[in-house]
Amino acid sequence: MDRLLESASGRALAGRHGRARAKEALREAADRWRAEGPRGDDAAESILAAAARALEERAPAGPRRVVNATGVLLHTNLGRAPLAAQAVAAAGRAAGFSTLEYDLVAGTRGRRGEHVRPLLLALFAKDRNDLDALAVTNAAAALLLALDTLANGRKVAVSRGELVAIGGDFRVPSILAKSGATLHEVGTTNRTTPRDYEEALEAGAGAILKVRPSNYRIVGFTEEVSLSALAALAHARGAPVIFDAGAGAPARFAEPSLADEPVPLEALDAGADLVCFSGDKILGGPQAGILIGKKDLVARAGANPLARALRPDKLVLGALAATLDLHLSGRRLEIPFYRMLEASLVSLRDRAEMLAAAARAAGFTAAAVDSIATAGGGAGTESTLPSKAVALSRPSSSADALAAALRTGELPVIARVEGGRVLLDLRSVAESEDEEIVRALEALGG
Q1: Where are the alpha helices (DSSP H) in 161-245?
Q2: 218 Cβ contact list (under 8 Å, min separation 6)
Q3: Helix, strand, or coil here: 14?
């Protein structure tokens, strides 16, 4: 191994990839050469060439870029909201030395939160001097900070129908327990009444938490208590109301399937004291948690030592500021989520027909078909959107095998399998990615 590393080719490999990585690649290449058995070629030359190929073909460190053809616009496993070009550029500007915590005018230390705080207030609470906002790492962090600030050591009343679990990591009871608060369950899974909350407050509950169950619905014989009614009950006893909105829209959507998405200012006007929501859902920005509410309560949250542990880094702040600026500038269609959301069926149909023709030319059976996309990302269980897709199949492989081949290509294309066919739903695919899909199909052939 030392002789291989000290050869001219070995030194070149170590120079390009680092000695430890080159040594590892040479060892693996040598193991493969031994397993395959001598072939009459020069062993050292063969091993060095194999190691060089492996290192050159090695995928870059970190998450890989993929084409999201699932029809889920905010796909949690694929990174939720894709960032606008302006947000990517802003993160790049912040990546080196920057004014993260520096005031250029005064020449003294600044506050990192001020890069986004005024923008958050302008978008979500314009002309409201009684409100303030704070950004943290994600929505779970915003909820944790709110609970720790307002209810540590106290009981928090939560409806049993709102003790949600989203994905595998976010569970309201677990977040509440970590905050130092004590869960006080009220009502039943399907029915919670004002009297249930009254009894909890009488039993010593120091706060009420209302959670929007964004990824499921309870239907039938149900009852829940509105935010305004909760606020009246809680405020009469000096208890705050925290609302975990999940996603937060600057204004009501015209799209019927998203019309019920929470608007933080409406929740605050209804009586919530603090509202928590995500930056990488309806906002269309980077992963971040937003805490907005009464000025004195947000100030207390910001002064909480936990706020330092949960503060966003410079890349997130840059991307979030740029995303907020696009909303405020009336340029939300430059945010990929909104561009996908508002793409016309005519444009999606034309693209689907073009891609279907290219797929047939590559040897696939393909057709443009109707499809149903979803907003995803916990933006509501009924957020379905009409869409167009390319249905793919080929006699030589099953739908599952074809989907696997697409996602293991040089540029992974993530499709969905439905009705024995592979569907490439174009509502979640940027138009600029169509040619990349064509190249992926040509590489696979029919």
Answers
A1: 172-178, 194-202, 227-236
A2: 161, 189, 190
A3: helix
Strand order in the sheet with 421-425: 72-74, 365-376, 384-393, 421-425, 416-418
Please give the Cα distance from 5 to 119 (Å, whole number): 55
Q: What pLDDT is stored for residue 73 in this prediction? A: 94
Determine the Cα–Cα distance for residues 354 and 366; give it in Å rounded to an integer: 11
Cβ(138)–Cβ(278) below 8 Å: yes
Q: Is 210 left (phi over 0), alpha (psi -120 to 50) or beta?
A: beta
Look at residue 421 in the predicted model and tell me its pLDDT: 92
Query: Under a CB-based contact definition with an 8 Å cutoff, are residues 363 and 446 in contact?
Result: yes
d(CA 378, CA 362): 37
DSSP assigned state of 188: -
How does residue 382 score in pLDDT terms, banded at 50, 70 and 90? Answer: low
d(CA 149, CA 159): 21
How far is residue 272 from each of residues 40, 156, 227, measured CA to CA in Å?
Answer: 78, 14, 7
pLDDT of amino acid 215:
62
**Helices H / strands E in the chain, number of each:** 18, 18
pLDDT(168) > 60: no
Cα angle 170-173-176, degrees, rounded to a multiple of 5: 95
Residue whose C-alpha is closest to residue 359's, from 391, 336, 397: 391
Choose the weakest-confidence range: 162-176, 216-230, 369-383. 162-176
Nearby residues of 112 by Cβ (< 8 Å), 6 or more positions away:
100, 101, 311, 314, 317
DSSP single-letter state for residue 286 = S
| Residues 6+ positions from 19 with CB-CB distance below 8 Å | 5
pLDDT of the residue at 296: 96
Question: Quick check: pTM over 0.70?
Answer: yes
- Tens-place pLDDT, residues 188-219: 888 889 999 999 999 999 999 999 876 666 77
Greatest Cα-to-Cα distance within the chain, rounded to the nearest angstrom: 89
Q: Domains in the chain, start-ordered, CATH in brackets?
A: 2-44 (no CATH), 67-78+339-444 (3.90.1150.180), 85-333 (3.40.640.10)
Dig out the tokens for 262 from the structure. 């929470």
Q: How far apart are CA 444 and CA 410, in angstroms?
A: 11
Residue type, 145: L
Tens digit of each residue's pLDDT (9 = 90 or more) over 107-120 = 999 999 999 999 99
